[in-house]
Amino acid sequence: MNLESANRDPDARCPCLSGLQFGECCGPVLDGTRPTPTAEALMRSRFTAFAVGDRDHVLRSWHPRTRPADLALDDEMRWYRLDVESTSGGTPFDTDGEVTFTAHYRIGSEKGSLHERSRFTKYRGQWVYVDGVIA
């Protein structure tokens, strides 16, 4: 079983480390059957998309104004841990929000992390990623 299919098991722990199973957390968001209620939930689903190699969700959840024309995911990079450090706005009642997080990855035996403050907005009633500042 490859990493993508293992991480898409609805009974497996969700890669975003919310504590929920994939089928009740990011799974329905990635397959398009449930919208995200908050900016943090969208950020978690985007992390999960990177972890399982779902570039379509990454692109679909990106604001059209800032979305790249194409996106290549590194098959060697394994995203394995997400630490959400803070959120500002981004509730179901807001139109904008920020999420600061650290995402941890491995490439072979090397470990690394990405620390980012991401901006989100509601576009056509759905949360979308706008851009981020990498620290």
TrEMBL record:
Domain of life where this protein originates? Bacteria
Matching Pfam families: SEC-C, YchJ_M-like
Gene3D superfamilies documented for this protein = 3.10.450.50
Alphabetized InterPro entries for the sequence: NTF2-like_dom_sf, SEC_C_motif, YchJ-like, YchJ-like_M
> For the YchJ-like middle NTF2-like domain, which residue ranges apply?
38-132
Q: Which family does it belong to?
A: Belongs to the UPF0225 family.
* Protein name per the record: UPF0225 protein GP2_011_00920
Q: Give the species this sequence originates from.
A: Gordonia paraffinivorans NBRC 108238
